[in-house]
Every structure is written in structure tokens, then in C-alpha cells.
Amino acid sequence: MDKHQSSRVSKNPNWGGLQIAILYLLLGGLWILLSDQIAATIASSREMLKTISLYKGWGYVLVTALLLYWLIQRNTAALRASERQMQQVIDALPALISYVDAEGRYQFTNKTYEQWFGDAAQGKTLQEVTGEEAYRTISKYVDRALQGETVSHESVLSYPLGERFINATYVPDQAADGRVKGFFALVQDISERKQAEAALLESSLQFRTLFEASPDANLLIEPRGNWPILDCNTAACQMNGYTHEELVGQSIDILNPNPWRSPKRDEYLANIRQTGVLRYETVHRRKDGTEFPIEVSTSLISLAGREVLLGIDRDITERKRAEENLRRFELLSEHSRDIILFVERADGRILEANTAALQAYGYSRAQLLGLTIHDLRAGDTHLLTPDQMTQADTSGILFETIHLRKDGTTFPVEVSSRGATIGGVRTLISIIRDITERKKAEAATLESELRYHRVLDTMMEGCQIIDFDWRYVYVNQVVAEQGRRKPEELLGHAMMEIYPGIENTEMFASLRQCMEERLSRRMETLFVFPDSDIGWFELSIHPVAEGIFILSTDITERKHAEQEIRLLNEKLEQRVIERTAQLESANKELEAFSYSVSHDLRAPLRAIDGYTRILVEDYEADLDAEGKRICGIISAEARRMGQLIDDLLAFSRLGRKEIYSSKIDMKALASSVFNELIKGEDRERIDFQITKLPGVKADPALIRQVWVNLLSNAIKFTSRKERARIRVGSKQSRNEYVYYVQDTGAGFDMEYVDKLFGVFQRLHGESEFEGTGVGLAIVQRIIRRHGGRVWAEGEPEQGATFYFALPSGEST
Fold this sequence. Notes:
Layout: H1 3-42, H2 46-92, E1 96-101, E2 106-109, H3 112-117, H4 126-130, H5 132-146, E3 151-159, E4 162-174, E5 180-189, H6 191-203, H7 205-213, E6 217-221, E7 229-232, H8 234-240, H9 244-247, H10 262-275, E8 277-285, E9 291-303, E10 306-315, H11 317-335, E11 339-344, E12 350-353, H12 355-361, H13 365-368, H14 386-394, E13 397-404, E14 410-422, E15 425-434, H15 436-457, E16 462-467, E17 472-475, H16 477-482, H17 487-490, H18 495-498, H19 506-517, E18 521-528, E19 534-543, E20 547-554, H20 556-571, H21 573-618, H22 625-654, E21 662-664, H23 666-677, H24 680-683, E22 686-690, E23 696-698, H25 700-717, E24 724-732, E25 736-743, H26 775-785, E26 789-795, E27 799-807
Parallel strand pairs: 22-24
Antiparallel strand pairs: 1-2, 1-5, 3-4, 4-5, 6-7, 6-10, 8-9, 9-10, 11-12, 11-15, 13-14, 14-15, 16-17, 16-20, 18-19, 19-20, 21-23, 24-25, 25-27, 26-27
Helix pairs in contact: 1-2, 20-21, 21-22, 22-26, 23-25, 25-26
């Protein structure tokens, strides 16, 4: 029954009752008002008035009773006429329409029930009317309707007078408190439609052609028993690895890794009946046992008068792989610390951005996607030229620029951009990295280099750096004086321009070898100046990033002294002694000068450190966190500069220090040095091993310095390991003893092994490991002064081994 009809029927009696009440109220009011006045006029005495009032009351009751009877009969007749009209309409419908109460009894049915079941259904139970077999089919849907659920289903009903394919809808009737009083049922006979569908499916050659030609796997399944496969197309055989004969007649479970039980099949079938077409994703198993994902679309059809399932399976392996790749890309994009932007090639409009981009620029996603890439460029930067845009679109481009945040602040970025076609739109994929910290580090490195240059400027030796084009990129004042030039005359010019013919000298051959082979060299050379004057120089040549670094000492005076000594030696021994004394005096003066320079350099550094400490201690309350951090950096850099000066002076003095050889117990010396260097917290972390070491005759102080530098390096570069091992051992060859220090620390790339023993050469940043880059250069100078050699082997994060060899002829 239509809800609007039921509401209209219920409203008419209410409106009639309201009319009766209003009319009764008006009539009663007029009767009381007028009858009292008339009675008072007629009555001549109190007894007569009393009698008139009695008849007046009974008259009022009689008149109102007749009026109420007339009104009620009038409205009741209208209601019955409306109900008869509605019953005629309902009876004329070809569908079954009924109302079933909570006890399962029909309270209302139309005439179609008598035509279907041969008798009136009103007052009977569902079982009595439909029969037990049909009731078993519909009972589960009846139960759901009586629980308050609107249910629709298609079923085959076998009842006493025949079999029909029906489409039924049950609508629950709920009271105000939620209790279900019953349900309205609308049942339509769709047998003819289903038979027509089956006949069409069975007879249509076009269907069979489409069935076979479909690229998807098509399966016809009997939804009874073990659900056997009735038929399948070629695509189903190819997809699952079976022949047609192997699949037909088998249970659908042959394709399921986890076979279904009967309750699950019933639930599955009920879902199909309710939805019409059931779509979902699952996994199938091929004949060879491999499993693959599929998308299933299942529906019920009628074939030759019986109900079958049509399953259409699509292999979605590639789609799943693409979805997984997309998911990985999204995860990578969202977790990337770099900014990722998708930009339309034509107009620069931002199509997509990751979380890092939103955080970096300060926009919401909607705001950022409403901008172009040009809106993110700082005003004083230049746009890419057409040629650069073409390069970015084809082969990719890498450049640095300045970007603008929402709040107006700017920050430096490195942009890597490359073109791709996405969804038919030519798109530039830009990966943008905030290089603020890198720029600060570069500025700090530049400042550090300037400090190093200031140190080099104060050294007594000549210091020069020559690039790969043989141009002077750095010279200190000492080098300029040694070359009898001004610094500005040298800087930016090639050696061959300043000193024509120098490329033909033995000295230049050594420089070239160091430049090309990246091997350090040490030599004494004779240099002829353009005015034919002669000078002697001791050169220490090392490969550096810019080219080569040359530490030069003017030994002309020493050579002259040696020449004079040789000449005087022929005449008089005393002259040799005197000259030697003069030379020793000069060396002492040179040593004193070194100490004086060292003191002069340290004094301002101590002052910087001291005043910084005073600033922190006395003005701590006035300094914010950044101020305190900067003061800490100043103090640390002053101390590091002092250490650098010490190392450079120690390196410089090694060339002049006399060697005093004596017998050395190498094992005892190495063990003693390690115990002095190791700290308490490192003893449990580091496994220290030392094997038998042969004794050697050498300068104890210098060899001790070698062990100090090598063992302290091993301890330092294993500091980030939870567990580490340091091993000290030796090897013996025919002409030399080889000692080594092996660790399991940070290691290094063998590509840069030539840089290890150069002055200021560091393979690890200062933020990773402290140091000045002079320690290994000191080791090399000491060992070479003993006639030995040094080398190293290593691998990143796998540790390093440093070797030094001393002539075995000095061993005991």
C-alpha cells in the first residue's frame, strides 16, 4: 500500500471528527444562550421554569444525538467508499500486495493471491499459503524484514499450484517505539522475463561469440552443490592454465586458494540476489600453483530455465603492480625531505606538491596549487631562458636560484628539473632542495680557508698553491720574496709566463709528476733566476684539490755555507768548525724565531678565547641562546687555530730537527702510547690487540710521535662505533720492518689515498671528526727522515690500516 494513500485515509476521519466537534460546540453554545432566555420569558413560576429546563435539557440531548449520528454516518460512508476504491485499485494490480503481521499471518491481501494460490490468504500463515518448500526459500528474507530491514530478492518459488520466478520487496511496519508490527509485501511474477532471458542466452549466437571473444575470463557456474563450472571461455583457460575439459565439471574451488564452505556460499549468493551484480577483488590460483590477483564481476542469469552464475574475471596483476609503484612513489614523495613539484610545461602552473613543499613555502595545498612556479621565484632572480626550458624538458637541468615563501622570506635552493608526459600533459618534475645550510657551510669553509691563508701568510716557509693550468692561485709573502716577485705579479699567472723555460727543468718534472700522478714529492732543487742568479730550495710537494701545494724553504745560504765549508775544508779544519758553529747558530736563531712567531700568533688567540669567556661569564644574562652559541664557536675556533699553529710549527721543525738514534722496544712503546691516549669510557668499547713487534734503532721521541698520531687517529675514527677493534702488528721483508695500525672505524675511499699524507688534507668533514689535517703529514716526514716510507689501505665504513716501514739494517 502506498504511504501517501494510507496517510490520506487516516487523515479524513480526523478531519470529520474535528468538524463534528466544532459544530457540536456552536450548537451547544446557541442552545444554552437562546433557550435560557426563551424559558425565562415563557415561565410564569419557578416550578414551571424547572419543568421547562428539564424538557430543554432532554431536548438538547436528543437533537445533538441525532446530529452526531448523521455526521458520523456521513464520514463513515466516505471512508468506506475510499477503502473500496483503494481495494479495487489494489485488486486490479497483477502483483501480490499484502500485509503480514509479526506472527507471520496475512492481515491484508489483494485478489491476486486467490488467483495464485486458489484461495483467500487473509488470516492464514505464510506456510499455509505458500507451502513448506516455498516458505523455506523466503523465510530468511521474512526474518530480516521482521527485524526492521527492507529486503528485496529474486527467487524461484515452488508452491502447490506450480513454480514461479519472483521479485519480492518487504517493507517493515514499525511502531513509534521501534517495535516491528509486521511488514508490507510486494511480489511480482518475473518468470516470463527470466524465461525470455534464458531463451535469449541459449539461442543467441552473438552472446556465444562475445562470450568466447571476451578478453576477460568468463565462467558459468551452477550455484548448487559444490558449485560446478558449467562452461568457460578460452580466456579463462589461458588465464588459469587449464584446458576447457579440465575446468568444465570441476568445482569453482579448483581456482580458489581457500575453498568456501556452504554458509559462505549461501551468503555470497544472497548478496548477489540483493545487489544484482557483485563486484570485488580476490586471488585465484593457477594450475601450476601460482597465485594472482583478479577483479570479479558476478551476476545471476537464467540459462535454459535454470538459474546460473556468470562470473567475469579480470587479471589485475599489472594494475596492482602499478598501484604498488604509485603507493611507493607517494610514500617516497610524502616522506622526502626535498620539495617535489609537478609543474605544467606550458604555463608553469603547479599541478601537484608533496608535504615538504607545503612546509617549506608555508602554503596550504589549495593555495599552492593555485600558483605558478614563477610565483615562488624571488623578485631579483632570472627566469630560465627558452633554451634552458628546452633542456629541462628533454635531458634535464640542474641549477641554483632563490625561492620565496608565503611570508615573504627567501631561501636558496638547488633545482633538478626534467620533463615527462603525465595524463597527456607535458609536465616538468622538479626536485628542489633547500641549500641554506650548505651555503652557510660554504661560507664557513671560505672563512676557514681565509684563516688558513692568514696562518700560511705568517709562516717562515714559502707556501704556494698551483692549479691544474699551472696558474698561481695562492702565494704567501715568503714565496714572492723567494721568487723575487710581488704576490700580485704571480697570482693568476702561469709559472711558464713568469719564469720562461721552467718547464724544461728537473724541478718542473717533479711538479708535473705530482700534478698528474697525485703523489707527494720532496726534493732539493737549483733554480736559475732570469738575471742568471742561482738559488737553492728545499721543496715539499703535495697534491691538493686545486692542484698542488708546494712548501718551499730557501736553502741558498745553507748551500753556500756547505760550498764554503767544502772549500775551506781543503785548507783548514778550523774554518770548517767555525762555519759549522755559525750554521748551528743560524739554526738556533731560526728555532728561536719559530718559537717567537708561535708566541706572537698564540697571544691574540688566547686573548680572543679569554675575552670570549669573560663575555659569556659576565654578560650571560644579556646574551640569548644564539649569542652564547656564537661565543662558543669563537672559543672553539680559537683553540682549534692554536692547535693548527702547533701542528704547523711541529711540521716545520721536523725538517731541521737532528735525529738521535737509540734502541727502541716498539711493543712497549706502542702499548704505553695507547694506554695514555685511551679514555675510561672507551676501554670497554675498543678491543685493543698488539702482536710481537721487532725492535728498531731510531729517534725515540720522533717514533713515539708516530705512534701517538696513528693510534689517536684509530681511536678518533672508531668513536662512532658501538664496538670497535684496533690491532697493532708488524711484517718483515728482506730490507725493512713494516709496522701497522689497523682499525674498524670510518675508513676512507682508496680513490683519495694520495691525499692522506698531505698538509691540510682531510677526507672527513670537521663536523664528523675533529682534526687539523697535519698529523699524517708529520708521520710521513718523520718516517722519511728515517729513510722509511708510509702508506695506507681502507674502505668506507669498513676501517683503515696505516703502515710505516723502517730499514731493517737499523734493527737490533
